[in-house]
Amino acid sequence: MQTVQTTQTSPGKTLTKTITQHTKALDEETLSFLRGIAEDYAKVKNAVYERYSGIRHVNSLTPVYGILNEMRACGLREQLNLPVVYYELAVADAVANIKTNWAFLKKKINGLVTADESLGDDEKMYLRTVLKVNSIFAAVLNGEPHELPDRAKGIPLDTDRLDNRLRRMVRKHLTKPKTESARVFKVSPNGCRYGDGGIYLVSRTPRRRVFVPLRSGEQYDRQILFVLEETGAALHIPVETRIRKHEDYTDTVFMHIGDQVMFTLSDGSVYGEALGRMVFPETLRLDRKNRERGRLMREAEAYRADGRPDKAASIEDNNLGRKKYDSRKARERADTIRYINTEINRMLREKKPARIVIPSRVLKGRTKHYSRTVNLKLTRSFRGYVRERLAFKCRIHCVELWEVNSKGTGRLCAACGAEGKMWKDDFVCERCGNHTTIALNTAKNIEKKYQDGEAIQTFESFLTAD
Length: 466
Ligand SMILES: [Zn+2]
Hints:
Elements: E1 14-22, H1 28-52, H2 65-73, H3 76-80, H4 84-115, H5 121-132, H6 134-141, H7 159-173, E2 184-187, E3 192-195, E4 198-202, E5 209-213, E6 224-228, E7 233-242, E8 251-257, E9 263-265, E10 270-271, H8 275-305, H9 309-319, H10 322-351, E11 353-359, H11 374-396, E12 400-404, E13 421-423, E14 426-428, E15 435-437, H12 438-451, E16 455-457
């Protein structure tokens, strides 16, 4: 059985989970205040990307204070008239993204080095070590003298040539991050205050706060991420959750993850049976509604082009109730999300697994089924969401998440191994007479593959909180 060497999440540590609150529908003045902050927030991030994402700064990104001090002194904040409680988080956000960008680049180059057959083993080891030690990596990129990594000492290597090669690779693959969307911003705890059924935000005018009414009454003392929507905003608040180890969680569970029934386990039990009913009516209705809106919008446009703005305005007023449409959509989405989480929790509580085995994710671009319609896109996003939440909850409860290659798990009969027939949700094997659901047959095949040693622990279950 393949094992992966890495740090495990451990009990007692914490993980950050995100809680979401929603604003009520907001008036135009409040909305334009929020949009203005989001636009400036994006400008600050882009300014930081412009200045600090190059190779010259690769070694001065941590700690963030150096850059923060320079950005405090550069005059941009005053020029934008953006309060500190937004400005500094925009800077910190951008620096974090630059760091992530570098981490991805290093990972990519590491892969290229490994795959490069023109490099010898010692040369690969040298390059990989340089990628690992940031101070040496920075010196190499900037053509400065540097120490040899300990592991490379005493080995005859043409380090000048290798350093050159690394610089070329970085130049070729380094991209500058850029924020196009101006729909989000963060505010620090001292920039907001809960009260009167909403939240008061620091405005651009001293001592004046902007009131944003909320749909729910919880209050947090955390930095908040605002994501702007058509007529309101979603507030995302990171909250620390303690990782718990359950001594009575001992079983291994094998399950299929589906769009209709969320989880089908190899023992026949199911969780999230109503998922399909919740997701599909919503997506179909949205699709229909979107088409209808498109038709009305074109009609209104035609009237306007025809010199009849009164008629156009009346269609828009009566039929394009965006607010109502948006809030219903948001509510249904929130219901589905709540349902998914409740059902994952129920499965964990009832099955008490020490280990969960699921099929590997089907890679994007390799799937044959493709649909332009909005409903399937939405379904896919829920499927991704289910896996993500499952991985997260596994980490919180110290449950190992394992994967087996999903190839053949749907098609082959779990009882006899012959190729079966699939019709809608049913699976029928003509050789041995096995008649079951595709989901259950798949779950049983996952169990079989696992028993045959074809499973590995997932990457997701290794992500630690930091
Ligand atoms: Zn069979």
